[in-house]
Design brief:
heterotetramer, A: 394 residues, alpha+beta, 4-stranded mixed sheet, 4-stranded antiparallel sheet, 12 helices, B: 373 residues, 11 helices, 51% helix
């Protein structure tokens, strides 16, 4: 028995013993996710138990070093943990921008004090983070942000406005790009800072999306005091931290094409439209489009797998994340267009139980943001043209 | 007939655009939606349509209408697409009016056509049953019963069905298909409003042993197929015109945005990738416009292959409008995703119009069959 | 009986009497076309008779003024002539860049002497013209041509090279863009001149295309003498003439999507692949693609018709020609991709009788030039963005 | 198995690319084509393939091959796609070799596998009959006759059939499909070389009362379907690898052109519209590469759904390579249309590889059936 086999056996046993029944099975909606934080909301009390147990083992961030509260697992062990969790259909104990985004950036750029202070709280789901990047005037041109941090010795005074801040109204802390040198060329002069959303002068306002509900907010800073100790990385070099973090976000959103999951398209369509005498979907034109989509989706899943293998083998080009983000989000949009066609007029309903509150339509509309958030498709294509194709002037 | 508007038709277009921009711009839709209006459609506006001569554009003058043709109906439909105005125009003023004009008895016409033309009555055509438009696969039946018929079945996607003063129901009879004029208050008729993604309205109608007299039949018993097909084709061409209106309006809004929004120190309209996508989309919109004009003209000329041209128009306009709203949201970026901006409303409306009366796939299938492959 | 009815009756009678039997029925290949010129080649002697008769009436250029040898017909009469010719399947008596391209430019920009001298010859098919625009270094950037015309008082001495000169090896005269002012900004300083291909110093070399055969040549000018009397339009303003002429060419190439014609795609496919039990093409995936194509093709035909109606009503934007050229050529390429798919392995043959010398494959390859010649698709899109959409910097 | 090449596989790739670039670059194809070579393929090069261990890459070592797997066969096929080299590799070294390895008797294997591995023999698999690949709809029949069988039928698109030393013919027998090893010199066998658009080779084979002994059967009578399917799936995956090779090479050539060609005073690679199209195409090529790697790996792992992954790869690689060559010609502009430039040759080869062993539509159909819609 190899070490990995032993680890698998132990993990399996621990999961069987510790994962509550309520925390097994698919997560039906965003509301059923556990985001943690000071005002954490749990779908059931068992979900709190599950988070506490996993957090104590550091398995909410399996590959982070144990000294910062992480699981301290190797990549292989983490894969085993993942597959064992899938085996029993265990839900993720925690959804967290702290784990997905800030943590990796702190591990790469944070001071020892920052890691000691912030990472364990993230692992245990005690503090919920949000991301303050986009601004109304900036959009894709992230580096042109205007939120200003004025130097006041040991602290800054921050004034400005962010937009598309996911769950800003529910977050405890924010990681945020601010302009610390208004004179410098635009990519320089930006710093990456952390502060408490309860600080005086911070306010938020939710944004309604076309899909009806939205995790997004506008966030306003009015003379907000930010301690200089909470600067991550070098002063005026926050752009490096942001880029590092964006790469993580891209892979995550790109993967939605795969993870968007749910029932296979063909099944949805035959369920809604029926079959002809030869057992084919009784809409030849839609059938062809679904088949083409499924070929692309299967190929994309293989590309995701291959990218993982490349990372493992140290052969991955960092800009491949842009490619996967671009492709995955376009694919997911196409998939939902086809789901709408498969659902026909039933899928057009916006309210009521039959349509589960217009789920198909709302999900479809939500996917339209995939190719905008985390860097638009156009930005990804620019990155590919420049970094992977070396096209001039890109 | 040339595929451009005559002077009279251009005047109608101006009148319609002007009226809607003043009295029923997108804010009108938002108000009905956000106030959760029980009807989801304004009876007052419908009456105003009657006064302006819009409601009865295809209704003969002897019944109080304007006695115009398919091109004029398309002009109205396109205008409604531009302002996203919820209106019984397509359901009552086109589909049902066309059935009654072509097949209604003297009494039926006298009872309903003047009231539709005046914007006083809403008459809904109930055809669809499953999730997809498939009039050839109908299950609703009308069995002879006493002096009349007994109807059983379930209909969906019935435009304005929840506020209808009368329903026209398509059902199978012994040797074909028959259309019946049904009072929605008849015992056995159940109507459920379905709030749609575009905040326009439709209903599900369940018919359980609904008894109607023989004089409820429109046209002849078993002879409803051609009658229905004629109305559907006009409706499809008008839906295509609405798709063009909505798609083009989303496109124009986007072009205006490209000319003013700055990113990376440039107007985003300066980026060649967006220019080429815009130019491609412009081309598609022009092609779709020609297809719709061709279909409406073919209907007015009574061309034997008009149904096929209608399929070309509906399929093409649908795909193009879909591309137009997708590009509109994408090129607007984040703000395009907000409910506050209008582009999302165009995306929603286009989705519904695409599904209505047969999506692009349905009409491609018709094309394939007609060409024998 | 209206005048037009009378005209129709007379035309019908004349055509019946004068169009030889050999000149009725489809033109099977490029070789069967009559191009006229000093060394004219006729598929049959009857084709010469047909050209002479039509040329004498000016009906090879029906709408040109009678004083220059044209038919002098109104637009309505020309339509009647066209429909009467189609009625008896009469072949075009003459294929001619003189009629299609140079003539309209001369009518708009030529001097009275030039019209008197060149137009009647064109109408009668006595002189065959070719077009000298593109150069190896220029490509889409037509205005950057380098062929130089040095001023020598009453004539120029022309040196340089043209490429993509259709039928240069068979043409008698050339209409040609040359740089008459090397100092001027590039769109200025270009002139539009005419000269005899038999002039000393003119040589040509055919270009082999991927489709195997090609009408194209490289054309070399080595101290070629060109009379100043043969300047068309204003000196250094040849660009205006060229633009006028390009618009004509674009409409022509765009129309190929419509005129490419031949058997309907669905028919080709069912002939090659067969039908299923329900009478549908026995390849559901190809069937969907063909159906989509036929929708687009039918819509495009209506757009061509509408554009004609707009021209007639004086409502046409000149850049609409770019849109039709772009759309038509992309459509024609797609059509031939589908024809290849419908033909399957049979369509892959390159030689031999069964495949008529690889006709399907060669036609398919030939269409790839549609979106390059007469201004690339990219150039058309630029024109649309600039002139129809008023996008900034376009 | 991870979806990246092992060190050994990377070495094979380098060896194959190096050898082909030196001994059989595109100039080799042009020479065979322009000299109107009677065979259209070089026997000498095939023998050199034998010496290098390329010809018998999948043939077991005991028969003189390298005993490697699908991934290695794919590496070879991709390399051949890059240089457009006409070679019996796919027909003999993959398709026929696979049939013989999986189903051949000891005598059949001994007779042919070592000679294929040595690049001495060409063995062609004859499956297709109509214009499209459709092995399930075979019409060629083999009737019992004396001690053996009598074959009748017509085959097309038989790779290298005109220079084959042996044919493997698929035919219907009483209760299924059977594969026969047929000497092309047998009475009743007529072979016509078909010169293809890509200057590669295939043949039409007509079988009229062709008599073969019972020992001509490969595997069992009526048991040929699985045997054939196994070989076809490997062949499809390799054809997909060749498509990737050809498509990617055309793409690389185009990117080099974009970096050097000037228009309107700029490098054309600076135009954002071309940048975005290039970046999109790059993404597609990466996705297709993963699909092919996935298919080859699935075959090596003996996954039960390997055939489906193969269909994903063949369909995806086909469509992507098609886009790659279309963009290559368009972005090259006029020179891309000339025979003198290589991009046209890539377009031609990709067209043939797309049709070979089932086009994208064929494989989409398999996907739809497998997913039950």
């Amino acid at each position: 028995m190899t070490d990995l086999d032993t680890f698998r056996a132990e993990t399996r046993a621990w999961l069987e013993a510790n994962c509550p029944a309520e925390c097994r099975g698919p997560v039906e909606s965003d509301e059923d996710r556990v985001w943690g934080g000071r005002n954490a909301v749990f779908p059931t009390p068992a979900h709190k138990v599950w988070l506490d147990r996993m957090g104590a083992k550091g398995w909410t961030a399996p590959e982070w070093p144990a000294e910062y509260g992480g699981g301290g697992l190797s990549r292989e062990q983490a894969k085993v943990l993942g597959s064992e969790m899938r085996r029993i259909d265990a839900q993720a104990p925690l959804a967290s921008f702290g784990v997905w985004m800030l943590g990796p950036a702190l591990l790469a750029f944070g001071t020892e004090e920052q890691k000691q202070r912030f990472l364990p709280e993230i692992v245990r789901g005690e503090i919920r983070w949000c991301q303050g990047y986009s601004e109304p005037g900036a959009g894709s041109d992230l580096a042109s942000i205007q939120t200003r941090a004025e130097d006041r010795g040991d602290h800054w005074i921050v004034n400005g406005q962010k937009v598309w801040t996911s769950y800003a109204d529910k977050a405890d802390w924010i990681f945020c790009l601010v302009r610390t040198d208004p004179e410098a060329p635009k990519h320089l002069g930006i710093s990456f800072v952390l502060f408490d959303m309860a600080t005086k002068g911070v306010s938020t306002r939710p944004i309604t999306l076309i899909s009806g509900k939205s995790p997004f907010c506008e966030t306003f800073f009015d003379d907000v005091r930010v301690e200089k100790a909470n600067l991550v990385g070098t002063l005026n070099r926050g752009w490096d931290v942001a880029k590092h973090l964006l790469a993580h976000e891209r892979t995550m959103i790109g993967a939605m094409g795969e993870l968007g999951g749910g029932r296979p398209l063909g099944q949805v369509a035959t369920g809604s439209i029926g079959m002809d005498d030869e057992g084919r979907l009784d809409d030849g034109m839609l059938r062809a489009r679904i088949a083409e989509m499924e070929i692309d989706a299967a190929a994309f899943r293989l590309a995701m797998e291959r990218a993982g293998d490349q990372v493992k083998a140290g052969q991955a080009h960092p800009a491949i994340a842009s490619m996967l983000k671009y492709y995955g989000s376009e694919l997911n949009k196409r998939r939902h267009e086809l789901l709408m066609a498969a659902g026909g007029s039933d899928a057009l309903e916006w309210e009521g139980e039959r349509s589960r509150g217009g789920k198909a339509a709302r999900d479809w509309l939500r996917t339209k943001a995939n190719s905008i958030e985390g860097g638009t498709s156009e930005v990804q294509l620019n990155i590919i043209a420049k970094h992977l194709l070396q096209l001039p002037g890109a | 007939m040339p595929l451009i508007l005559t002077e009279e038709q251009s005047m109608l277009k101006e009148a319609a655009d002007g009226f809607l921009n003043e009295h029923a711009p997108i804010a009108h839709l938002r108000k009905l939606r956000d106030s959760r209006d029980a009807d989801g459609v304004s009876r007052d506006l419908w009456r105003a349509f009657g006064e302006m001569g819009f409601a009865g554009v295809i209704i003969p003058e002897e019944h109080g209408g304007s006695g115009l043709g398919a091109v004029e109906a398309g002009v109205m439909a396109e205008a409604l697409g531009r302002t996203l105005t919820p209106s019984p125009f397509l359901g009552s003023g086109v589909l049902s009016a066309k059935v009654l004009i072509d097949g209604g008895s003297g009494a039926q016409q006298a009872a309903w056509l003047p009231r539709i033309a005046a914007g006083e009555a809403i008459v809904s055509l109930a055809v669809d049953e499953g999730a997809k438009h498939a009039p050839a696969r109908m299950a609703t039946v009308a069995q002879r019963s006493g002096n009349g018929f007994k109807l059983n079945g379930a209909k969906g996607f019935v435009l304005d069905g929840h506020v209808a003063d009368a329903l026209i129901v398509a059902a199978l009879t012994e040797n074909g298909l028959t259309l019946f004029l049904v009072d929605p208050k008849t015992a056995g008729v159940e109507i459920e409003r379905t709030v749609m993604v575009d905040a326009h309205n439709a209903a599900r109608v369940t018919l359980t042993d609904v008894e109607v007299d023989a004089d409820a039949v429109i046209g002849s018993v078993d002879g409803g197929e051609a009658l229905l097909e004629g109305a559907l084709n006009l409706g499809r061409a008008c839906a295509a015109a609405s798709l063009n209106g909505a798609g083009d309006q989303a496109f124009q809004t986007t072009m205006a945005y490209l000319r003013t929004r700055k990113q990376f120190g440039k107007l985003i309209g300066e980026f060649q990738a967006l220019q080429h996508r815009s130019a491609h989309l412009f081309s598609e919109i022009e092609i779709a416009r020609a297809a719709v004009m061709g279909a409406l003209t073919a209907l007015d000329n009574g061309r034997p292959d008009a149904g096929l041209v209608v399929s070309v128009a509906k399929a093409k306009a649908g795909r193009v409008a879909e591309l137009a709203v997708q590009e509109a949201v994408q090129m607007h970026g984040g703000v395009g995703m907000t409910d506050e901006y209008d582009v999302g409303l165009f995306m929603k409306r286009v989705r519904v119009l695409n599904e209505l009366l047969g999506d692009a796939g349905f009409h491609q299938e018709r094309m394939a069959r007609a060409q024998g492959f």
